[in-house]
Amino acid sequence: MAARVLVGVKRVIDYAVKIRVKPDNTGVVTDGVKHSMNPFCEIAVEEAVRLKEKKLVKEVVAVSCGPQQVQETIRTALAMGADRGIHVEVSGKDYDSLGPLQVSKILAALAKKEEASLIILGKQAIDDDCNQTGQMTAALLDWPQGTFASEVAVEGDKLKVIREVDGGLETIKINLPAVVTADLRLNTPRYATLPNIMKAKKKKITNVKPGDLGVDLTSRLEVLRVDEPPQRQAGVKVETVEDLVGKLKEAGRI
Amino acid sequence: MSKCLQAFRHGVCLVTLTAPGHPPWECCTAVWFNCSNHENRNGGVNRKLDNNTSQVFPFPSVLNEEKLELLRELLEPCSKFFEEVNDPGKNDTLEMVEEHTMQGLKELGAFGLQVPVDLGGLGLTNTQYARLVELVGLHDLGVGITLGAHQSIGFKGILLYGNKQQKEKYLPKLATGETVAAFCLTEPSSGSDAASIRSIAVPSPCGKYYTLNGSKIWISNGGLAEIFTVFARTPMKDEKTGEVKDKITAFIVERSFGGVTNGPPEKKMGIKASNTAEVFFENVRVPAECVLGEVGEGFKVAMNILNNGRFGMAAALSGTMKGAIAKAVDHAANRTQFGSKIHSFGVIQEKIARMAMYQYVTECMAYMVSGNMDSGATDFQIEAAISKIFASEAAWKVTDECIQIMGGMGFMKDAGVERVLRDLRIFRIFEGTNDILRLFVSLNGFQVGKLKRIYMLEKAGMSTGLTLQGTVHPELAQSGELYVCILTDEQFVLERVANCAIDLYAMIVVLSRASRSLSQGHSSAQHEKMLCETWCTEAYDRITQNIKFLRSGTSKQIFKNLRAISSAVVENGTVVAPHPLGF
């Protein structure tokens, strides 16, 4: 039975916002843009809180890496039912180059420090779509992983995970401690109610530096350029089937 | 320009000043003064003026960083809820708030926004409440009224006048929405004339309870509520004379007391999702502990409750207008006719600009009043009334123009705007009809004793030396102007005087806010300056016209004619002039 669950939550640009690329093509515009919790992270938090409500887990700890603003995201997790939060302070250039490798090192170190027996993450973030952090964290800890989870059940000291894979659904049983990444159909996250937001204000968020965890944030990746996807070209209308075949031949498609 | 002091039979004094009619005007400023009357030996009245502009300048900023942060956090889930869960069209068609939506709102905590935290609510200040109510107004006025009837007036009496036991007994369940509240004042024969209500609560000989009998009409949440704030006459014996008089008392009445029934939901033009019903009280035993406030003080309780909740209306409607403007602009920016997008046409531009100004003024009023209330002001009844009048009429005009801009599309149900217009119509009627509130504004403004005066000051020749220089941003110096009106007791005059007061307050609030934006160097400051200057220029003209008209000889004749026309039509039961065709 898992005593403590670590849930990673990432602050990303809100899904409804129209993304714009910076004029210098080094990244996307984030200043003054609406941010919120990564939707898959919301699902991860919801699952952790449900486990706690079923009394299968004692404490849910929400973790986020980034500058001061990520505290909002941690607060949202607290309002959804997490017990306390950990803010790993990363800012400036380090934050710009923060990726799955660095985050997974941080989560692994925290899992050991906090003696967590379960880590639940979103399967991927909607800004970088990496889909790597869960897997890397499990590897660093040498823990089993249940990724793309659409259902999680505790069975004694093991976890039954139903995974959504291309071919359908795969059911696996893994030992605890383990890493699980949440897929879309795992659950429907609750709305943070206003009274819970008020209560969340009293919950604790501790600040930690990556250095304190012995983590090296150096990135092995360098972003060369960010471009918008090519504009969608207008379509062409044709009158007859012959015209259609002709156009397709012209375009070298057939 | 002339400056004169006039004393009237009512003992009301006004300082009348007129500004020169030709540009460029001198720098003038708008000020609300508190002043007191001193009778002098000759039976005239001297004014002692206190310059107290602190209520309106600078624009109130009552939320510290922590409270603002909390408000931002609260807004998020509410916004999501209204975008994803609440379906205003469905609510309108079903003529009720969908069950799961109602449940969701209760779980969200939306039913106890201003209940103290230790009793299970969110303990929000008026300004924080205003911001949330603005969000609701943006999305669904039917839900807005359901929530407002519950907490803005339904149980507000318990918040304002309840004793410790009453608060502890009722507020926790009201905060979670386990029980819903309703405000019961209006009766079939008592609407605007609220003091004439006939419901009666007779005290028992032992003094332990009252027996309540009466019927109330058009009660929002009447069919849903468990807790009612009811106003009824109670016979009271005057200790000195032994005479028994009826005075109104406020009671907390629980449906569970027995004898409380309600009629079916009324079929309405708008806010269909809100439940409106008759409520009947038949020999209801109300324990004496349920008296709210003092026995016999019920009328004051009623008026204060309504007064206290009024700013909420302006806030909600400023949200509604934002929504209408967004829809109108979206249409105007995409609709092509005669080879151009219609927003490039002057007629459409004027509509959009005026809509923006109305919304800006309403927003300024809402947050000025809530800010003043949060700062501890106890004397905001006139401003609250003005904000209700202005907001309800502005919202109607704005939404009406939105439909006009959208053309045929605006008239269609699916566009979602016609529903808003239907919802808005009641706002000029309930919670004090705008007509009554206008009389209240002008009469209250000229009450002897503790008064607020509207002054027009002209920079040159101003012996009072009072000016807003230094409080109004220099860029706006040209725009502040004030007026004074001559008062008589005719309603025709009072209405126009009230309109001047409303325009004047509107000028003050926009000057205040635009000044703040300019001093804070907001990127929108120049745009706000334009809104402010345009509004003030036109308001000044309106006020001058009104005063000119009131002072003219023609006004007396016009009023006489209006009276006569009305009498004749009433007597005839319909129009008097025979048909042009003779039949």
TrEMBL record, chain A:
Domain Electron transfer flavoprotein alpha/beta-subunit N-terminal: 25-217
The keyword Zinc-finger is assigned to this record: no
Domain of life: Eukaryota
InterPro entries recorded: ET-Flavoprotein_bsu_CS (IPR000049), ETF_a/b_N (IPR014730), ETF_b (IPR012255), ETF_beta_N (IPR033948), Rossmann-like_a/b/a_fold (IPR014729)
Pfam family, one: ETF
Major localisation: mitochondrion
GO cellular component term, pick one: mitochondrial matrix
SMART domains: ETF
Keyword annotations: Electron transport, Mitochondrion, Transport
One GO process term, biological-process aspect: fatty acid beta-oxidation using acyl-CoA dehydrogenase
Subcellular location(s) of the protein: Mitochondrion matrix
Subunit architecture: Heterodimer of an alpha and a beta subunit.
Similarity annotation: Belongs to the ETF beta-subunit/FixA family.
Protein name according to UniProt: Electron transfer flavoprotein subunit beta
Gene this chain is encoded by: ETFB
UniProtKB/TrEMBL annotation, chain B:
Cofactor(s) demanded: FAD
Residues annotated as domain Acyl-CoA dehydrogenase/oxidase C-terminal: 296-441
InterPro entries: ACAD9/ACADV-like_C, Acyl-CoA_DH_CS, Acyl-CoA_Oxase/DH_mid-dom, Acyl-CoA_Oxase/DH_mid-dom_sf, AcylCo_DH-like_C, AcylCo_DH/oxidase_C, AcylCoA_DH/ox_N, AcylCoA_DH/ox_N_sf
CC per GO annotation: mitochondrial inner membrane
EC number(s) per entry: 1.3.8.9
One Pfam match: Acyl-CoA_dh_M
Lipid bilayer topology: Peripheral membrane protein
Keyword Iron-sulfur: no
First-listed, main subcellular location of the protein, grouped into a coarse class: mitochondrion
Domain ACAD9/ACADV-like C-terminal as annotated: residue spans: 488-574
Pathway(s) annotated for this protein in UniProt: Lipid metabolism; mitochondrial fatty acid beta-oxidation
Subcellular location: Mitochondrion inner membrane
Record-annotated Acyl-CoA oxidase/dehydrogenase middle domain positions: 182-284
Catalysed conversion reaction: octadecanoyl-CoA + oxidized [electron-transfer flavoprotein] + H(+) = (2E)-octadecenoyl-CoA + reduced [electron-transfer flavoprotein]; dodecanoyl-CoA + oxidized [electron-transfer flavoprotein] + H(+) = (2E)-dodecenoyl-CoA + reduced [electron-transfer flavoprotein]; eicosanoyl-CoA + oxidized [electron-transfer flavoprotein] + H(+) = (2E)-eicosenoyl-CoA + reduced [electron-transfer flavoprotein]; oxidized [electron-transfer flavoprotein] + hexadecanoyl-CoA + H(+) = (2E)-hexadecenoyl-CoA + reduced [electron-transfer flavoprotein]
Keyword list, A-Z: Acetylation, FAD, Fatty acid metabolism, Flavoprotein, Lipid metabolism, Membrane, Mitochondrion, Mitochondrion inner membrane, Oxidoreductase, Phosphoprotein, S-nitrosylation, Transit peptide
Family annotation (SUPFAM superfamilies): Acyl-CoA dehydrogenase C-terminal domain-like (SSF47203), Acyl-CoA dehydrogenase NM domain-like (SSF56645)
Enzyme class: oxidoreductase
A biological process term (GO) from this entry: fatty acid metabolic process
Alphabetized CDD domains for the sequence: VLCAD
Domain Acyl-CoA dehydrogenase/oxidase N-terminal: residue ranges: 72-178
Keyword Iron-sulfur attributed: no
Gene Ontology molecular functions: fatty-acyl-CoA binding; flavin adenine dinucleotide binding; very-long-chain fatty acyl-CoA dehydrogenase activity
Function: Very long-chain specific acyl-CoA dehydrogenase is one of the acyl-CoA dehydrogenases that catalyze the first step of mitochondrial fatty acid beta-oxidation, an aerobic process breaking down fatty acids into acetyl-CoA and allowing the production of energy from fats.
Subunit structure of this chain's protein: Homodimer. Homodimerizes after import into the mitochondrion.
Similarity field: Belongs to the acyl-CoA dehydrogenase family.
Protein name: Very long-chain specific acyl-CoA dehydrogenase, mitochondrial
Organism: Pygocentrus nattereri (Red-bellied piranha)
Organism taxonomic ancestry: Eukaryota, Metazoa, Chordata, Craniata, Vertebrata
Gene: ACADVL
